[in-house]
Amino acid sequence: MAGDKTFTMIKPDAVVNHHSGAIIDLILREGFKIKALKLTQLSVEKAKEFYAVHNDKPFFDSLIAYMSSGPIISMILEKEDCVQVFRDFIGTTNPADAAEGTIRNLYGTSIENNAVHGSDSDENATIESDFHFSSDERY
Ligand code: ATP
Ligand code: MG
């Protein structure tokens, strides 16, 4: 059975370019509930740990530099069938291919600078939420 939570980050490009408010507004209007939220910055070490699954990819070093380059807003979201519904809502990895009106279509500027992250499975949603939030930081 699909779970009801996912983990997301508004990535440094979107935060620095003042899109956080608009992105959070879209998320809330779509019916996702925010269960945890914080502004933080990933260290290089933390970014490497978070994206360890990609450590053999040609874009890994660039991804780590980008994700640790500035502030992020991390959130736990709740909605029915949350992981898949949220991934559909943010659009494909490459903003150039993302459906009109999706967050990456609206605010992503390249395949790397694609504005937001969304967990890709219920299992990873739990792992990623635990990576970013302690139990007393959640509603
Ligand atoms: P995310 O995990 O951030 O939600 P995703 O699941 O759509 O994105 P992944 O394949 O997990 O995509 O890639 C993780 C991130 O690595 C992407 O969101 C993007 O920032 C970056 N990335 C992926 N593919 C490329 C690429 N070909 N060139 C540069 N950066 C890339
Ligand atoms: Mg991914």
What this model shows, in words?
With 139 residues, the chain is an alpha+beta fold. It has a single domain, classed as 2-Layer Sandwich (Alpha-Beta Plaits), CATH 3.30.70.141. The chain is built from seven helices and four strands. Strands 2-3-1-4 form a four-stranded antiparallel sheet. The chain is globular and about 35 Å long. The mean pLDDT is 97. The site of adenosine-5'-triphosphate has 10 residues, from β4. Adenosine-5'-triphosphate binds next to β4.
What layout of secondary structure does this protein have?
Layout: E1 5-10, H1 12-16, H2 20-29, E2 33-40, H3 44-50, H4 60-67, E3 72-78, H5 82-90, H6 103-107, E4 116-118, H7 122-132
Antiparallel strand pairs: 1-3, 1-4, 2-3
The protein binds adenosine-5'-triphosphate (ATP) and magnesium ion.
What average pLDDT do the residues reach? 97
Order of helices and strands: EHHEHHEHHEH
Proportion of residues in extended strands: 15-25%
Based on the coordinates given, report the CATH architecture: 2-Layer Sandwich
Number of strands: 4
* C-alpha-based Rg, rounded: 14 Å
Main structural class: alpha+beta
Descriptive terms for the model:
139 residues; 7 helices; 4-stranded antiparallel beta sheet; 4 strands; globular; Alpha-Beta Plaits; binds magnesium ion; binds adenosine-5'-triphosphate; 40% helix
Summarize the structure.
With 139 residues, the chain is an alpha+beta fold. It has helices spanning 12-16, 20-29, 44-50, 60-67, 82-90, 103-107, 122-132; strands at residues 5-10, 33-40, 72-78, 116-118. The chain has 7 helices and 4 strands; from the N terminus they run E-H-H-E-H-H-E-H-H-E-H.
